Amino acid sequence: MAKASQMSQATFLLCVIMFVLLLIIFVNILLNKSKIRKQMERIAFEDELTHLPRTNKFVIDAQYLLKEKQNTKFAVLQFDIEQFKYINEIVGFHEGNSILIQVANSLTANTLDEDVIGRLGGDRFILFTSYDNKAELFIRIQVLTEQMSDYTFGNEEGFRLVINCGIYCIDDRQSDILTCIDRAGIACKSIKGGYKSSCTFFDEQLLLQIHEEQDIVRKMDAAMTNGEFIVYLQPKMDLRVNSFHGAEALVRWNDPQKGLISPAVFIPIFERNRFIVKLDLMVFKSVCIMLSKWIQEGIQPLPISVNISLITLYHNDFLLHLTNIINRYQVPARLIELELTESIVFQNLEFVRDILLELKRKGFSIAIDDFGTGYSSLNVLQYFPADVIKLDRAFLMSKSNDETGKIVIASMVKLARDLNMKVVAEGVETEAQIDFLKQIDCEIAQGYYFAKPMPVAEYESLIKST
Length: 466
Prior knowledge:
The chain has 466 residues and is α/β, with parallel strands linked by helices. The protein has helices at residues 2-45, 55-68, 84-91, 93-109, 134-149, 177-189, 204-225, 263-273, 276-296, 310-314, 318-329, 349-361, 377-383, 393-399, 403-418, 431-439, 456-464; strands at 73-81, 116-121, 124-131, 150-151, 159-160, 163-169, 198-201, 229-238, 243-255, 259-261, 304-307, 336-341, 365-371, 388-391, 422-425, 444-445, 454-455.
């Protein structure tokens, strides 16, 4: 009987031990599930690089505040870093990530307690914030973008980023936060291309602009296939002998419904979606075809300049495409002048300089367009292998009306000539400008004073008659 009792107690004790073990296992499973759930939530809701909330978490938190605080005005802001892709290529991806982290930290440090922040991806950040009036909000965001602009390399002196910000003020409490983000993004994209941090509000006009851009993007491939992009030529005049000195090739879009569309409308869009590569090469090929035709007809061709965008210059097969085209049409490279804007050459100094040197080795002339509009014009003359500089129209007009400005232009022309570069003055419209340019020994002029951009056939008749 005692032995049976002992066995019963042992069995009971064993059951208790097993129960405790099972309870421990069960608790561990629950704890592990909790850890796993938290890890999964962190992965789903937190950006790995900056530790800011991802878009889905941002939307949840912002939508909650919008619903709960019915009497509070809210706005969604979208920030991005101007030209971050090219900054990344210059400083490297590791340093690029450091820039993103520092921008994220600056945004976090300078927001209000109830603000919701997040990272959309890439260099785009979002902020959901309250405000009393638009004027105060605008001032606050200007200060914020300035603070986000400072970037330092370790302990070294850094540089200033350009931070753009699009603002969408929510006027409908039923608004979908994703739609608000999109509209803030539309406002942000509308201020691309500046040299300093900027911010702007979304309005319906911007939405109309986006729809027009979408229409252009929808039509562009068919337009290329159907030959709707047409090359026009604007003659250049040699002021020393009062005769033509070639021309610049300019592209126009002859849309069947809208007629001629200005390049100022479609070129920026094509640069954003990289269609500009196709367009640049089409214009280059068209110029080679016309030069080849004139050579075969015994007409002494004059040099033609062709604009090349930064996107095209960065294309992997850029040099190969140009070489193949001139070889196919048997056009001497010396008859083609490649124009790049002054702002382009400072995007990636070493890369651009190497490309330009290779182009010169192949026989092309290099022209720096819009000269005088950048911050480091003199560095262009010193560092880049240019043959021609083109004085920007706005620069010429603003500087040629006062004595100090005239001295600046005259000094730049003399310096370029001392460096064996030709100088072309763009946008010449008055006889007074012609007299001034002759006085300072500027060789070549281009503008409406002489001729507007014209169809190729009209230009051909012009050079045949001279």
